[in-house]
């Protein structure tokens, strides 16, 4: 099997703490947002690693309390149920995520849309009952009428959001990446500057291991794509996120309906994309871009990646070879 090694184009010289060795790498893990999380880090002198666990859990609980549609009492769930004209003052986490989501919606021409919760629920990918057959075209069109990021009344200056009536937010395509960034922020606040943080396969790397080597991560590879080779990346100041049609889906009549919904059509994207892997300094941005590029498809997505200088890897059904952007190619050793 061919192995491809990816190195960040810009590497800042970072030295691990003096006197540390492999025995000083601490490991914490747990569950959040319906998946697992973990953190490996070089523990600075005087820090007892388990002491920061409550801080991590507090951050995750705060994000869930604001952005989880699976939590009936969360801010996002209350907004989705609210009557037209109801105004919400937004806490910092929610504001930052929604602000980034709306900017990306505009940037991608609606390929990424945080206001498509009605479609997510209709297709059975939300907190409700899963589907076994696709909805009708009429049902899709009715759900689409309830969607649209441009319908939201978002006041950046006042940090508020007003429910226009019937709009349902869904931040699942960006919130997990934000949580990875916040996990990293907790570690850095504890004087930990050499770490690998992960939630559900989305990763953020900073610094190096005690021996000076980077935090290596194997890129996620869909089943049946062994022929595309193995990619391993040095996550030095980088985050990586992957979105794919093999992660959540149902099959009906021999057709796979994946959770990557195209807000523009009201149905799962059907462009042949199996997975999209994105690198970025922000895991929130990488997470959202992986979703958006999966919706765009190869041609439109690659044009976006070139214009924005985003390192991206596309895998397409029926094609063994990977499609990579110029920024991704520049990272290959």
CATH class placement of the domain at 73-162: Mainly Alpha
Question: The CATH topology of the domain at 73-162 is what?
Answer: T-fold
Number of strands: 18
Largest sheet: 8 strands, antiparallel
Helix/strand order, N-terminal first: EEEHHEHHHEEHEEEEEEEEEEHHEEH
Mean pLDDT: 92
- The order of strands across the largest sheet is 2-3-7-8-11-16-17-18
Silhouette:
globular
Which CATH architecture of the domain at 73-162 would you pick?
Orthogonal Bundle
Structural class: alpha+beta
Strand content: 15-25%
Query: Which regions contain 5 or more consecutive residues with pLDDT less than 50?
Result: none
Helical amount among residues, as a percent range? 25-40%
Radius of gyration: 20 Å
- Which homologous superfamily in CATH is the superfamily of the domain at 73-162? ApbE-like superfamily
In short:
This protein is of the alpha+beta class.
What does this structure look like?
This protein is α+β, with helices and mostly antiparallel strands and 333 residues long. It has a domain at 73-162: T-fold, CATH 1.10.3980. The protein is 29% helix and 24% strand. The chain contains 9 helices and 18 strands. The protein has helices at 53-67, 75-81, 92-107, 117-122, 137-145, 175-189, 283-296, 298-308, 326-329; strands spanning 3-6, 25-32, 35-42, 87-89, 153-155, 160-162, 195-199, 202-206, 216-218, 230-234, 238-244, 249-252, 255-258, 261-262, 267-268, 273-280, 312-316, 323-324. The strands form 5 sheets. An 8-stranded antiparallel β-sheet has the order 2-3-7-8-11-16-17-18. Strand 17 and strand 18 (323-324) form a beta hairpin. Helix 6 packs antiparallel against helix 7 (283-296). It starts with a strand and ends with a helix.
């Amino acid at each position: 099997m061919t192995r491809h090694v990816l190195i960040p184009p810009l590497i800042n010289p970072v030295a691990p703490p003096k006197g540390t060795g492999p025995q000083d790498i601490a490991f914490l893990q747990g569950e959040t947002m319906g998946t697992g999380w973990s953190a490996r880090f070089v523990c600075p002198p005087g820090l007892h690693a388990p002491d920061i666990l409550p801080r991590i859990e507090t951050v995750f609980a705060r994000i869930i309390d604001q952005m989880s549609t699976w939590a009936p009492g969360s801010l996002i769930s209350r907004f989705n149920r609210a009557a037209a004209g109801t105004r919400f003052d937004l806490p910092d986490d929610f504001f930052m995520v929604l602000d980034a989501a709306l900017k990306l919606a505009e940037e991608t021409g609606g390929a990424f849309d945080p206001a498509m919760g009605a479609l997510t629920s209709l297709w059975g990918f939300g907190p409700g009952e899963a589907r076994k057959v696709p909805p009708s075209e009429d049902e899709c069109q009715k759900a689409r009428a309830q969607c649209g990021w441009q319908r939201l009344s978002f006041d950046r200056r006042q940090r508020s959001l007003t429910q226009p009536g019937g709009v349902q937010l869904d931040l699942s395509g960006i919130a997990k990446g934000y949580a990875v960034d916040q996990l990293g922020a907790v570690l850095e606040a504890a004087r930990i500057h050499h770490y690998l943080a992960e939630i559900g396969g989305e990763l953020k790397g900073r610094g190096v291991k005690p021996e000076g080597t980077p935090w290596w991560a194997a890129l996620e590879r869909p089943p049946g794509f062994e022929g595309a080779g193995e990619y391993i990346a040095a996550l030095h100041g980088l985050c990586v996120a992957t979105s794919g049609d093999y992660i959540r889906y149902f099959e009906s009549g021999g057709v796979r309906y994946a959770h990557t919904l195209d807000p523009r059509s009201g149905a799962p994207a059907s462009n042949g994309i199996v997975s999209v892997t994105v690198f970025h300094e922000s895991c929130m941005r990488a997470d959202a871009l992986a979703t958006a590029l999966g919706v765009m498809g190869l041609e439109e997505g690659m044009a976006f990646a070139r214009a924005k200088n985003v390192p991206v890897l596309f895998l397409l059904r029926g094609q063994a070879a990977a499609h990579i952007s110029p920024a991704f190619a520049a990272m290959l050793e």
